[in-house]
Amino acid sequence: MKSLATLGNELYAGRTSIPFVGKRKLWYIIASCAIVISLICLATIGLQPGIEFKGGTQVTITSVKDPKEGPANDVLAKNNLATSARVSTTGSSSVRVQTPALDAQQLTGLKDELAQAYSVGSDDVAATTIGPSWGKDVSAKALRGLVIFFVLVGVLIWVYFRTWKMSVAALLALTHDVIITVGVYSLSRFEVTPATVIGVLTILGYSLYDTVVVFDKIRENTADVLTQKRSTYGELANLAVNQTFVRSINTSVVGLLPVASILFIGSVILGAGTLRDISLTLFIGMIAGAASSIFLATPLLVDLRSREADIKAHDERVLEERGERRTQAEARGETIDDIPVAAPVRPGHHLGHAAQPKRKKKS
Hints:
This protein is of the alpha+beta class. Helix content is 64%, strand content 7%. The chain has helices at residues 4-13, 24-44, 51-54, 70-78, 104-117, 132-161, 164-188, 194-221, 233-269, 273-305, 309-331; strands spanning 48-49, 56-61, 86-90, 94-99, 125-130, 191-192. A four-stranded antiparallel β-sheet has the order 3-4-2-5. Strand 3 and strand 4 (94-99) form a beta hairpin. Helix 4 packs antiparallel against helix 5, helix 6 packs antiparallel against helix 7 (164-188) and helix 9 (233-269) runs antiparallel to helix 10. The chain is elongated and about 100 Å long. The protein starts with a helix and ends in a 32-residue tail after the last helix.
């Protein structure tokens, strides 16, 4: 079995090639199915907005010896709040109860009953009330931040790479990441909190970073694509993904390990809501972002660029001449290797000693 370093060298040199672009229809089908499933979950199950978004009252009971949800559920049922409230444990000695907005009298009665149910003092029961107008303001700002992020990213990529098609491909990949992350959040029934929004913006940054690295390599490989006749635009773009594949895997794994640790610690050990919310978003989003950078962004770019008249004519000419060379080689009983090398031939550039003609040994 090849080591990762050996595989990376072979992928970079073009001696081994994974057909990321050639199998793009398969990636499109898989991505489309994942998006449809996410949208179905979002439409049927929906999101579970936190109190910061929908408003309401939150009561936190601390110093609890046995933090179970049962006593709080009994109190809520007694006050006809069981269907509209939510109970969760946070850490090893705290219980959190979220209800619709309560008036002062209702809140005082609920605090006293919860203190009695968990055998704690009144000082160990704290309450916070958030109005619905504040929640709407937070939701509007979160949506506004997401839209501004997409606009700025689109303009930045357009200016940096000097083509709107790379910008469109990157934004489509980012949209895929957001939908998949939201779908998993809906399916897991985790609360959507401000930490979730922060996590979404963070994973979009991770995904964008991977995509820009791949696109930069594509720009390098295809700088003189029209002046050579060995490889099509799609082949050189696929080569760029192969050359950055091991790097993308390494950076994703390095980033996922601490996030997975935070997710485990936040969910299982500490039960901390904020850690759990942001770590789940990062964990799912980073996986989706790495996958979209490899399997979606570049194939989408190739489809967009292949519609250009000069690229289309060049690719047809390359394939036609390659077919002629293959036919001539088969007539001579020979075979030819059509795997593209690391970059197009550039006049005046040295291709290495391996590309030089070999001297015949003297008898």
